[in-house]
Design a protein that fits this description.
mainly beta, four-stranded antiparallel β-sheet, elongated
Length: 65
Amino acid sequence: MIAVAILINGNPIMARSAVNVGESYSKKGACEYDVDDGSVILHKQADGAVKLAIEMLKTIKETKA
């Protein structure tokens, strides 16, 4: 499992987590991650955790106040 959080002054304002569910059948050499919002990310582990974290953060939709 991987989790990414954005904190302001120590208070979490947004977070995302994902679980590696195994090798992807649609993209050779990639793993499939089930994200807590229901989306799926395909990621090559050789690309590193930072790239995965960025892709996870891209799934967050900001709302206007």
